[in-house]
Specification:
The complex is a heterotrimer of chains A (832), B (241) and C (113). Chain A is mostly helical and 832 residues long. Chain A has helices at 2-15, 29-58, 68-102, 111-133, 158-186, 199-231, 244-278, 285-298, 314-326, 328-344, 351-374, 376-382, 386-416, 422-440, 443-448, 465-495, 533-536, 583-599, 603-622, 653-681, 696-721, 728-752, 761-793, 802-831, and strands spanning 559-564, 571-577. Chain A starts with a helix and ends with a helix. The mean pLDDT of chain A is 93. Chain B is α+β, with helices and mostly antiparallel strands and 241 residues long. Chain B has four helices and ten strands. The chains are: A mainly alpha (832), B alpha+beta (241), C mainly alpha (113).
Chain lengths: 832, 241, 113
């Protein structure tokens, strides 16, 4: 025991954050995720206040409390704040907090990325909020339909705030998506095969992958619209061959999956809490995994149901209508698996279960109206009315907020070490539940009586007045409930009873960490033999025989995790992760400055800040991988009974992170190809694009150089794999030379091609494609240049073969998009 | 006395709900249709509402019962049986049956709303701009603003275009809405069988005066419509001279 | 021909095929309607709907074959791979079902109207 105590203090020395201002350099997942959740809660309050203002204006007919200008900003910001600054980040925060603890590890696998994500979120959020306080907030609705949001009809900087700020926040979401995916796949406790994974991790894995694929379409759309606003590139202008409907496609291609990105983690909370309070394992685990996978996919096939009134062919609408209805099946499977769990268990009706019941009622109701809306003729009537407003508040508040609060009460003892009180929690529940239904249940009727969305007032004799009064009244009851909730949570930190070990008798590993947890979660990383470790094994302990010691040695001063096999959970390597770092804060600050300089149209400044941001990111890349700061070699390392460090292998987490990032990048690229094909074939003034301007021969020559570079690079990795690391510097230099030749040709081509980017959407799209290629080629070349130096310094060698394996997929991807672009953008229009 | 008062208030309340549901005073009510398209949607709504309410009550009741029923120890075999039964019947059977029924009624309803080619149709152009509706009758050189005249019991194709941003043309009591999109022409089939005046409005947020972007559709009996047409043509002709 | 194994790729393969089919059908329809829309009076059967139906049937048959093979593998699977094969089979089956149901829409609406 004494031994453990001294071990604890040694671990704390390595894992704890720096004191004072040093907290800003923290990268630990527990700290970062708490910041995510607290910031998310603050934005929730802001979004809620906006909603109260909206409801006050609508309480009485023909009120003039709020001007139409301000009202437009309010509803735009309410949606934006709740979706982008509250729902997604707070769920990411919850996932980042819980996942490492549930899978029995000490941290997320890319800790500095967590910190970067947090700062991007915080700064992006602050930038967006500033516009509201300056009275120049975006005012075209949270889905920013063009041309209303374009430079011609939104002359102020409001739309720019939205486009730049949200893109900034999305960087944070995508980085969290990548990080959670790799963490779940590669750092589960030894023995935790996919089938032994807590069900919550399945939900988060699906959510993370959906973020990886689902966010890039909106990132692309935002870039295109910002280019249109700032540089006059007419992607969405029908007079120049663009199409405003392209924006809607890209937006909803993101926007519909997003609803499920929000719903899945919340359903994961439900699936975690119900078995604990039913005192038995979740029944139908495989049914639920099936439901999660199908939901993840089918949700990408629904986006057009937001666009049934834009005049798409009926048959296409029918496809999306049926697909939208099909998603009811995986939802119903989950609901009935939960019912079966309760049916066969011994239910304790504690506070979190009250919230789960509230969730069920509201969410099923919202799901049913969702099926109704999927029916095209019905949608034509109620689309863009208050019926839809009621529907999505039922789905989002019922499907996300209620489980989240249930989860908050459930995990409060974990966060604070104290138990919540039942009295105030019950009051808060009933106030919110009754207030919510008073606000939104009859709002369905308001919509059926014909009240459209986003009107700032209405005439008294339409039968809408008492309904709106009721909604406004209900919303204030709900707000008071939230006040009660916040008060309860704050008070409990002071007055709550001390929690015992595993107070709810849960089955998952997060309750085996301290409550509140230590910065390293587990002194010894446990070995998992069952799906319910805390129920089935009396004491979670590392199993010594499988050549691991649970990583209880800390004398080397590194932060270490176990890396395990993605499917079987077999122990593979020791992953050493970076400790605290200022680089995330510095990089995010430069990116924020970039954002601000673009907002104020100070492009020279923007150029300078971009260079600084790039410098800090390359510095980050430099002190990474097998750099001495990251992977100090010591003599003791080889003697201890643990597997190899990941920098001594060729399949470490960096490779996984690279591949998942490239999936996201690929989704971004495919969105661009989609946009190109769409503008060519479907846009109203489309014409067969004319490609004479781009020189095919120069392009092909550039591609040949690129291909040679990629092949040579692949050979280096292959030789490293077979243990041969001779002549690394000269070989990398050859790759660098060919890469550089390719890059210079591409730059020459871009500079000399005469593109009418402000009068032709198709030329503008060509330019974006060329910039996309240039961006990737430059990074590949610069990184290879850096690797030459690193090989000379000994960071890449026979014992440290790690880094080329990480960069290799990036080279392949660069060549891939080059040739696809060549075929799609240049050859296809020619042979058409 | 107080009780009496309460009673009266109650009655008033119920009456208001009833009135709103019937939409007697609601110029925009979907539930008070004046044409076959809107009528079909009304029946769809009431059908879906009834089935949906039953499902909601059933699922919640089942959940509540599962939570509150006396505990029994089930063998692993029983657990599997109960799970499979609940998931197969509730999780797959219930949505499949509901969706099938919905499609059986929904598809034909949607069919009749489409602008099928027909010889009897008349075409009216509606050009939306911030924040008014320019209406023109291409065959008769008639121009109107925020006002449309239609013959009753005749299929009308509204060809919708936009000058600036996206708007949405919607006459709730006659049928569904259709967006006005710059660069495109969308066709909406309107069909009014009861003569009268019906309110229309813009349904897609289109800027500051979105709230005020309203119009009226007058459905006239066929003979009156013919008279109106010739009167209008005469007056435009006179104006041109 | 073996279509299915215990590789984790099969957890999502069925739905990936479904997604590609969906994109091709929707994209193809939009482009076809833009390029040479058939006359709605011609009825349900024309070159667009017939090619859509054929493509749908092909994909459904492929997915069903995968699901059936997976189903046959389940009894002999080791405990390690059983989980993946079971889920993969169900995913293939669901993908086949949703392809069929969504493709069914082709029989109800005239393309390009």
């Amino acid at each position: 025991m004494n031994n453990d105590l001294s071990l604890h203090s040694q671990f704390a020395k390595v894992w704890d954050n720096l004191p004072g201002w040093g907290q800003l350099a923290a990268v630990n997942h527990t700290s970062i995720s708490r910041r995510f959740m607290i910031t998310g809660a603050v934005f929730f309050v802001i979004g809620g206040v906006l909603a109260m203002l909206i409801r006050s204006q609508l309480a009485l007919p023909q009120q003039e409390l709020i001007s139409p200008e301000l009202y437009a900003q309010l509803f735009t910001m309410h949606g934006t704040v709740m979706m982008f600054l509250f729902a997604i980040p707070i769920l990411e925060g919850a996932a980042m907090y819980l996942i490492p603890k549930m899978i029995g590890t000490r941290d997320l696998v890319f800790p500095r990325l967590s910190a970067l994500g947090y700062y991007c979120y915080l700064f992006g959020g602050i930038i967006i909020m500033t516009s509201l306080f300056l009275g120049i907030a975006p005012d075209s609705g949270w889905f920013m339909y063009t041309p209303l949001s374009s430079a011609k009809f939104s002359t102020g900087p409001g739309s720019d705030f939205w486009l730049l700020g949200i893109t900034f926040v999305e960087i944070s979401a995508v980085s969290a998506g990548v990080e959670l995916t790799v963490s779940i796949l590669r750092t589960r406790a030894p023995g935790m095969s996919l089938s032994k994974m807590p069900i919550f991790c399945w939900y988060i894995l699906a959510m993370a992958l959906m973020i990886v694929f689902g966010f890039p379409p909106l990132i692309l759309a935002s870039i295109l619209l910002e280019l249109e606003r700032a540089a006059g590139m007419p992607f969405f202008n029908p007079d120049a061959g663009g199409d405003p409907i392209l924006w809607q496609h890209l937006f909803w291609l993101f926007g519909h999956p997003e609803v499920y990105i929000i719903f899945l983690p919340a359903a994961g909370i439900v699936s975690t809490i119900i078995p604990v309070f039913a005192g038995r394992p979740l029944v139908g685990y495989r049914w639920i995994v099936l439901a999660i996978i199908t939901m993840g996919f089918v949700s990408f096939g629904l986006w057009v149901h937001h666009m049934f009134t834009v005049g798409i062919p009926q048959l296409a609408q029918a496809f999306f209508s049926v697909a939208s209805m099909l998603v009811a099946i995986p939802t119903a499977i989950q609901v009935f698996a939960w019912i079966a769990t309760l049916w066969t268990g011994r239910v304790r009706f504690e506070l979190p279960m009250l919230w789960i019941f509230g969730f069920l009622f509201i969410f099923v109701c919202g799901g049913l109206t969702g099926v109704m809306l999927a029916l095209v003729p019905f949608d034509w009537q109620v689309h863009d009315t208050h019926f839809v407003v009621a529907h999505f508040h039922y789905v989002l508040i019922g499907g996300m907020l209620f489980p989240l609060i249930g989860g908050l009460y459930y995990w409060l003892p974990h966060l604070s070490g104290r138990m919540p009180t039942m009295q105030m929690g019950r009051w808060a529940f009933w106030l919110i539940f009754i207030g919510f239904n008073a606000t939104f249940l009859m709002m369905h009727l308001t919509g059926l009586l014909g009240m459209p969305r986003r009107v700032y007032t209405y005439e008294p004799e339409l039968g809408w007045d008492w309904l709106n009064m009721l909604s406004s009244f209900g919303s204030f009851i709900m707000a008071s409930g939230f006040g009660m909730l916040f008060l309860d949570v704050i008070l409990h930190f002071r007055y709550g009873q001390k929690a015992t070990f595993n107070p709810w008798q849960a089955d998952t590993l997060e309750w085996a960490t301290g409550t509140p947890p230590t910065s390293y979660n587990f002194l010894r990383i446990p070995t998992v033999t069952t799906r319910h470790p805390l129920w089935d094994t009396p004491k979670v302990e590392p199993k010594v025989e499988n050549d691991g010691q649970g990583l209880e040695d800390i004398s080397h001063g590194r932060r270490e995790l176990y890396g395990t096999h993605a499917v079987t959970g077999k122990l593979m390597e020791v992953i050493h992760i970076p400790s605290h770092s200022w680089l995330p804060l510095i990089s995010a600050s430069f990116l924020a400055l970039l954002c601000i300089s673009l907002l104020s149209r100070a492009y020279l400044l923007a150029l300078g800040v971009t260079a600084l941001a790039a410098l800090s990111l390359f510095r980050w890349a430099w002190v990474n991988g097998a750099h001495r700061v990251m992977a100090p070699l010591s003599d003791k390392e080889l003697q201890r009974r643990e597997p190899k460090l990941h920098s001594r292998t060729l399949s470490g987490p960096g490779l996984w992170g690279m591949v998942i990032t490239l999936l996201s990048d690929g989704s971004l690229y495919l969105s661009l190809v989609f946009g190109w094909l769409y503008l060519w074939t479907v846009a109203p003034n489309s014409k067969v694009p004319d490609v004479a301007t781009v020189s095919l021969s120069v392009m092909a020559l550039s591609g040949v150089f690129l291909t040679i570079a990629v092949v040579l690079y692949g050979q280096i990795v292959k030789r490293l794999r077979s243990g041969n690391a001779t002549k690394l510097v000269s070989q990398l230099s050859r790759v660098f030379a060919f890469g550089l030749a390719h890059l210079l040709l591409l730059i020459y081509l871009t500079a000399t091609t005469d593109l009418a980017i402000t009068t032709s959407a198709h030329d503008a799209a060509l330019l974006v494609m060329l910039m996309f290629l240039l961006f990737h080629s430059s990074i590949a070349v610069v990184m290879t240049g850096l690797q030459i130096v690193r090989a000379a310094k000994g960071f890449i060698s026979q014992t440290l073969p790690y880094e080329p394996a990480v960069l290799n997929p990036f080279w392949v991807f660069t060549a891939g998009i080059f040739w696809v672009s060549f075929a799609c953008f240049l050859i296809l229009p020619r042979v058409w | 006395m107080a009780l009496c008062m309460l009673n009266r208030l109650d009655k008033l309340f119920i009456l208001t709900i009833a009135l709103s549901l019937a939409g007697c005073n609601g110029g925009y009510s979907i539930l008070d249709p004046a044409g076959p398209n809107a009528n079909a949607v009304r029946w769809l709504w009431w059908g879906m509402f009834s089935v949906g309410s039953l499902v909601l009550i059933g699922v919640c009741a089942l959940w509540w019962y599962a939570m509150r029923k006396p505990h029994k120890d089930y063998s692993p075999y029983d657990v599997k049986r109960i799970t499979n039964r609940l998931v197969l019947m509730g999780g797959i059977g219930l949505p499949v049956v509901c969706i099938s029924v919905l499609l059986v009624f929904g598809i034909p309803a949607g069919h009749n709303m489409l602008p099928w080619p027909s010889e009897r149709t008349i075409t009216i152009n509606v050009h939306a701009k911030q924040w008014l509706w320019e209406v023109s009758y291409p065959d008769h050189h008639i121009q109107l603003t925020d006002e449309i005249y239609l013959p009753a019991s005749t299929p009308v194709n509204i060809e919708i275009t936009s000058e600036d941003v996206i708007h949405s043309f919607w006459v709730p009591r006659l049928g569904g809405k259709m967006d006005a999109i710059p660069g495109r022409t969308n066709v909406l089939r309107l069909f009014g069988d009861k003569p009268g005046s019906y309110a229309g409005q813009c349904a897609e947020y289109c800027g500051l005066a979105h709230t005020k972007m309203k119009f009226v559709v007058h459905v006239l009996p066929e003979n009156e419509f013919a008279t109106w047409l010739s009167q209008q043509q005469r007056s435009t002709g006179e104006a041109n001279q | 021909m073996t279509l299915i194994s215990r590789h984790p790729w099969h957890l999502v393969a069925g739905l990936v095929i479904w997604a590609i089919w969906f994109v091709v059908v929707y994209g193809g329809l939009s482009v076809a309607c833009q390029v040479s829309p058939p006359n709605p009076e011609q009825g349900l059967l024309n070159w667009i709907s017939i090619s859509l139906i054929l493509m749908t049937l092909g994909v459904v048959i492929l997915l069903c074959a995968c699901a059936i093979q997976g189903y046959k593998l389940i009894p002999n699977a080791t405990s390690g791979s059983r989980f993946i094969i079971q889920i993969a089979t169900a995913v293939y089956a669901f993908a086949a079902f949703s392809t069929l149901v969504i493709g069914f829409a082709t029989l109800t609406v005239v393309p390009c109207l």
